[in-house]
Amino acid sequence: MQNETNINTTKNKVKKNINLLWTGGWDSTFQLLQLLLIFKSEVTLFYLIHAERKSLSMEIKTMKRIKDQLIKDYPHTKELLKPIQYYTVSDISPDTGISEAYQSIYKKMHIGLQYKWLALLCKQIGITDMHLSIEAPHDPEEIYWDIYLDNILSEKIINLQTVYRVDEKYKDKDFYKIFQYFDFPIRKLTKIQTATIVNKQGWHKIMNLTWFCHNPTCNKKPCGKCKPCLMVIKSSFEWRIPPERRAVSFYYRKIFWPLKSAVKYLFAKLGLFKQKNNQELL
């Protein structure tokens, strides 16, 4: 079972409440179930509203369905599960240090704007331990920003669960300025490993309610083309996408992605795009 490391260790830190960023997706819902059903932690949920996000209504409806099902199947969680705290992007105050750190990282590699928003939100509301449910990479050979993040994480134990944080010795680095507000509880698990735990625990009914697509179709099905859909397929979770959208995704990946790679290569040759190695980035 994940993260039940050194249960009797004196390093364990007890917290009455765990703050969790929740979207109704697989990863954050998996962590929610771990917190409530395995580690028996009280959980306060947070959701950041971006009005232009096409999946906004689907995610909010999904979270309600999951909460209802969770309380129905595990009534004791009603006392542990606190109301969702909703914030909007427009609620967030600017911060020069965080914005400059984000731009510095973005110049070296693509990193989602949501991490800047989340860091700004956490600083504004005074949270330094928000659980951010980012799994281990499916393909560690590929270059993503979070692979670099792994180089500066250190381990700690909260309520008997092992989590990871950016080590304070990197305080002068841009990554620290963004990610100092977060704990990473499932960073050492791949999506396949989380599915194994779901099977073992019998959490299928709840986990099958989760949502991931950024651009749902008019009949509320995953599009098969957005980044989350492509990552679901790459992680061997293609069963979560309807067959007809899987077919669309197949041709999209065969035609669009080779073209994108060619354009990216051309930009790199022209000096318009450049990846940095770990030491340059840190």
Mean pLDDT: 86
- Quote the beta fraction: 5-15%
Main beta sheet: 3 strands, parallel
CATH names the topology of the largest domain as Rossmann fold
Number of helices: 12
How many structural domains in the coordinates? 2
| Helix share, percent | 40-55%
Q: Structural class, from secondary structure content? A: alpha/beta
**SSE string, helix = H, strand = E?**
EHEHHEHHEHEEHEHHHHH
- Strand segment count: 7
Strand order within the widest sheet? 1-2-3
Q: CA-to-CA gap between the ends? A: 33 Å
CATH class of the largest domain: Alpha Beta
CATH architecture of the largest domain: 3-Layer(aba) Sandwich
Shape: globular
Regions with pLDDT < 50 over 5+ consecutive residues?
2-10, 275-282
* Radius of gyration, taken over Cα atoms and rounded to an integer in Å: 19 Å
Topology:
Blueprint (H helix, E strand, L loop, with lengths): L16 E5 L4 H13 L3 E8 L6 H18 L3 H4 L4 E4 L7 H13 L4 H13 L4 E2 L13 H6 L2 E6 L2 E6 L7 H6 L2 E2 L7 H11 L2 H4 L19 H8 L8 H27 L8 H4 L1
Parallel strand pairs: 1-2, 2-3, 4-7
Antiparallel strand pairs: 5-6
